[in-house]
Write a structure and sequence with these properties.
Blueprint lengths: L26 H6 L8 H44 L5 H7 L2 E7 L7 H15 L4 E4 L7 H13 L3 E2 L5 H8 L6 E2 L2 H17 L19 E5 L7 H12 L7 E7 L4 H6 L2 H4 L2 E7 L3 H12 L8 E2 L1 H15 L2 H18 L9 H9 L3 H8 L2 H8 L3 H9 L1 H33 L11 H10 L6 H10 L4 H15 L5 H19 L17 H17 L4 H20 L13 E2 L2 H8 L3 H10 L2 H4 L22 H8 L14 H17 L2 E3 L7 E3 L6
Parallel strand pairs: 1-6, 1-7, 2-5, 3-4, 5-6, 8-9
Antiparallel strand pairs: 10-11
Subunit structure: Component of ORC, a complex composed of at least 6 subunits: ORC1, ORC2, ORC3, ORC4, ORC5 and ORC6. ORC is regulated in a cell-cycle dependent manner. It is sequentially assembled at the exit from anaphase of mitosis and disassembled as cells enter S phase.
Keywords: DNA replication, DNA-binding, Nucleus, Phosphoprotein
Main location: nucleus
Length: 692
């Protein structure tokens, strides 16, 4: 369950397996092993797996929707460039002498790029060309390696580079096709052979492939996933070589750029970049991507599993201050999901309402006792009459009936919470200086932590809303009505009716009052804003309110009542523990691991990672069976092996032990725990202190 496996850094230590063959554990067995409340662990695993699959499916659909525009544009670009080669006019010929290049700016969220490139590669192969190769900088350190990777992925065969790799190629040739020489002329010959076969086809057979129904010479697309990481000299030489074959080979490049399009200018001189016909493509920013993911996966009643404010804050902080990876953010949600169902026995109630009500009636006495110990349930019991308190604490049947009602109330809370949250965000996100945050996730975090209506920012937002003109306020209230329209909750439907009545009254008013906020949209100085608010308060006291102002105050009081009724923190809801995950420290430890601490834990307690019984010790000492790196050999090994301290050979280290010791010291130096000094021969100094 720990994301860091430090022993992989310094080698693999082999232990002799037992003669008895061990049974392979399934994922369900791993989940159930050591699970809190093992009596219902299988049912919880099934619920967890269903939610996991649902999150995965919805995420994939969401990724496709977000990338659809940029991928469609890239597909159109490849088709257009391929058709240009078929034309005979002078302009097309000049354009065809350059290598068509798509500069795809994806942003700095590098961990998410693989999924985008995989989708792009699949779409290209399905609808444009079967000849697509993707390369990364780490596997293309030299020009020969870059050409080798391109040829191997396009031709599906072994490519020989030089005499040093002949032996490796001969070993693998028995499993692959005959090896070919590493050059673009080889690729040209192979491409001509392939396209002739595709165009000729089999007599009497119709071509049904969508790729073959396209141009007679489908392009050869090479995707550079991480352009910034490529060696500039290697990239320049490769482009120069490819430019000499452009008349024989319809090449096309796609540059994956994480930073800025100016990267191309920094990597390629004009003599090289002039050989490319570059078109820029910009994907959605990672922050826009995150906002959509939060909106679809978290701010919805569709998923019964929820995250509390601290866990949400950890996931967002890791996203904003570490890697901007939406993929890692989703993994964090899945990790929290797994931890919640593994550690919370009452998570069997974290499911759809009908299923949860059935599961309540199937709870045993132990589960009911767990409910009685929940903090939210204790607060609920304290508010009841003495007789009801006794029944709740002693009568299991009565408790089940009450729990069914509480589960229904919890689901109603979520049904009402999200529409009202969106309404409040709609009203406040257009105000100067965004008192409750520009993004809805910021407002959601405030509502998770405390009563939002008690905050100064909320009071300031309500005062600013009272300064809106008629048209501005009507537009915002109309958007709120559209948000409430799809809701099925009775309370929300009733609120929608009242809101529509107010909108009708607003439209019947003849007054056309300008907004004092007009000039504040440009001047957002805090001192000026406070001054204007004070002036508005003084003017209200001095004059009688107009019909518009009366109706405006009534509308905002109505919004305020909805906020106070439906946006209370989840901790105020009884049985919130069954569906809210709260361990932010666990999420931070797994997603934002500290390698040095984990390595120290492995060195001090190798059993924690290797799970070998021979490494178990009771008094905190290191077993002589531990890896060499964990042992101080001069004392521990000799003593453990039972050598007599009074013997002549005691203290003398043989060559094997000496070699093992030197290797262990070298490994510690490689990991950064010690370093060599110049004080004397073979002297090292410690670099880290403390431990686990």
């Amino acid at each position: 369950r720990d994301t860091t496996w430090p022993y992989q850094c310094f080698g693999c230590f082999v232990f002799k397996p037992s003669a008895k063959k061990k049974k392979t554990l399934s994922l369900a067995d791993h989940f159930i092993h050591g699970c809190e409340g093992a009596e219902n662990s299988e049912k919880r695993f099934k619920l967890c797996q269903d939610l996991w699959d649902q999150i995965k499916t919805d995420t994939e659909v969401l990724q496709d929707e977000l990338n659809r525009n940029i991928l469609d544009s890239l597909l159109d670009f490849t088709r257009k460039c391929s058709s240009t080669r078929q034309h005979s006019d002078w302009a097309s010929q000049m354009r065809a002498s350059e290598i068509p290049t798509a500069a795809l700016v994806l942003g700095v969220n590098v961990p998410d790029h693989d999924m985008t490139f995989q989708s792009l590669s699949d779409l290209l192969q399905q609808s444009v060309t079967p000849y697509v190769a993707s390369v990364q900088a780490k596997e293309c350190g030299a020009l020969k390696h870059l050409i080798k990777r391109v040829l191997e992925r396009l031709m599906g065969t072994v490519v020989t580079v030089d005499d040093e790799e002949e032996e490796e190629a001969e070993q693998t040739s028995a499993q692959h096709h005959k090896s070919v020489h590493c050059s673009l002329s080889t690729l040209c010959d192979w491409y001509n052979t392939k396209t002739k076969k595709s165009n000729t086809g089999t007599p009497g057979k119709k071509r049904s492939s969508p790729v073959r129904d396209g141009p007679q010479q489908p392009p050869v697309v090479i995707i550079f996933k991480d352009l910034e990481a490529f060696n500039p000299r290697v990239l320049q030489d490769f482009i120069l070589i490819c430019s000499r074959y452009i008349e024989r080979l319809p090449l096309m490049f796609i540059f994956g750029i994480a930073t800025s399009p100016s990267t191309i200018q920094h990597l390629l001189p004009h003599s090289v970049s002039s050989l490319l016909c570059i078109e820029l493509f910009q994907s959605l920013s990672c922050t826009q991507h995150l906002a959509t993911v939060i909106d679809k996966l978290i701010l919805t009643k569709q998923f019964p599993f929820k995250l509390n404010g601290k866990v949400m804050q950890v996931l967002i902080s890791i996203f904003l201050y570490h890697d901007f990876s939406v993929r890692k953010f989703i993994k964090g949600i899945q990790l929290a999901l797994l931890e919640h169902f593994h550690s919370q026995p009452l998570s069997v109630l974290c499911c759809k309402k009908k299923e949860a009500l059935l599961n309540v009636m199937q709870l045993d006495h132990l589960d009911l006792e767990r409910i009685r110990h929940l903090l939210s349930f204790k607060r609920y019991v304290e508010k009841q009459e003495p007789r009801e308190q006794v029944d709740l604490l002693t009568d299991d049947t009565h408790l089940k009936e009450v729990c069914q009602k509480l589960i229904k109330d919890l689901h109603k809370y979520h049904k009402n919470y999200y529409p009202i949250l969106r309404c409040l965000h709609t009203l406040t996100s257009s105000l100067p200086r965004y008192p409750l945050g520009k993004q809805i996730r910021e407002l959601h975090l405030i509502c998770l932590e405390k009563n939002v209506w008690e905050s100064e920012d909320y009071q300031s937002a309500m005062k600013l809303l009272k300064m809106l003109a008629k048209d501005e306020l009507i537009a915002l209230l109309q958007r709120c009505a559209e948000i409430l329209q799809p809701a099925k909750s009775k309370k929300i439907k009733s609120a929608l009716v009242q809101l529509e009545d107010m909108l009708t009254k607003f439209k019947q008013l003849d007054s056309n009052i300008t907004s004092p906020l007009k000039h504040l949209q440009k001047k957002t100085d805090l001192a000026q804003l406070q001054k204007t608010l004070l002036e508005m308060n003084e003017s209200r006291r001095a004059k009688k309110l107009s019909p518009f102002e009366v109706l405006r105050n009534e509308a905002l009081e109505f919004i305020d009542s909805l906020v106070k009724s439906h946006l209370s923190p989840p901790e105020s809801q009884v049985l919130n523990e069954v569906c809210y995950y709260t361990s932010s420290a666990t999420v931070r430890r797994h997603l934002n691991a500290t390698p040095r601490t984990s390595i120290q834990a492995a060195l001090n307690s190798p059993f924690y990672y290797l799970q070998n019984d021979r490494l178990k010790t009771e008094d905190g000492t290191v077993s002589n069976a531990a890896p060499d790196i964990c042992i101080a050999y001069a004392t521990v090994v000799s003593a453990a092996e039972g050598n007599d301290p009074d013997s002549d050979n005691f203290g003398k280290v043989d060559e094997v032990k000496h070699a093992r010791f030197i290797r262990a010291v070298s490994e510690l130096e490689f990991l950064g725990f010690i370093k060599s000094t110049k004080q004397k021969t073979d002297h090292v100094a410690r670099l880290t202190w403390g431990g686990c």
